[in-house]
Design brief:
With 357 residues, this protein is mainly α. Helices cover 61% and strands 2% of the residues.
Amino acid sequence: MRMDKTLSASELEAFGAELDALRQRTLADLGAADARYIRRVRAAVRACCWSGRVLLMAGWFPPTWLLGTLLLALGKIIENMELGHNVMHGQYDWMNDPSLAGRSYEWDIAGPSDFWRHTHNHIHHTYTNVLGMDDDVGYGVVRLFPEQRWKPFYRWQPLWVTLQALLFQYAVAIQHLRLDKVAKGKLAFDEVRPLLKVFAAKLLRQWGKDYLIFPLLALLLGANALAVLAGNLVANLLRNLWTFIVIFCGHFTEQAAVFAPSVLDGETCGHWYLRQLRGSSNLRGGRLLHILTGNLSHQIEHHLFPDLPARRYASLAREVQAIATRYGQVYNSGSLARQFASVMRRIWVYRLPSTAS
């Protein structure tokens, strides 16, 4: 249970001012090292993906198929987490590089980037953990907090969560379509039809690349097309599972808080920063973990400063934690194992009506 100090109006103003100043100092310091870093990340993504695909052409021979699949999965994970997600937040718009522009970057995932920019960048980051406003709280199928009203289908949420984890790239894409509102008659199907066409086009491109073009190329080269197809399938599955773990550990741990819509009434900058701090969870680990999570292991810093380059979060975290401590606020951080275990506990406990609010 969180034990945060209640801040007065003057304390909230000072709290917000300190975090604003930290953000401005970081913005003023951005430069060549940040640009070099993201270009190296992009180069690493390409190297991992292409080397993985080449190795898959060797067929089922265990070392090459396994290594090829893992390299392809690694490339897809880094592209998804450290490159695509962060670029689409506009973290590198200051470089004026069209290939790294937040508004036009298209990532290697089933969901169109424009869908993510709306549901994640706008809705989630504006209404972080506000019940009824932030659709990421349970994604409409999972009850993770006692404040969420219980519904009968939550009894089976361990199953829904398992399916969501395996198919995560599709789950976050479908979220934007709001098919639940269509089913309830709150949204006309004609309004969704254009979005379905966009989704279908992106899906065909992704499936065509991973499950048609490269297997056909294997056939033309006399390689084992089935091994290539299986490698692509497993790589996408590993990326889905990892993304699910990182996102759920960043938002739904035992110490994470949710808020009633009334929290938005008259919300000041200080209030907004406080909501981001209380609704987020960090993961402790080394540099490799931070890169593989797209630095979302520093989810607190990401929610506070979504448009700052994520490579800066590790250094920002020390200052953010010091500020939080000075103002009597819990800085929610733990190991991956501990945070994930607390998420799994929430999924199991809050499936039952006996834990209703």
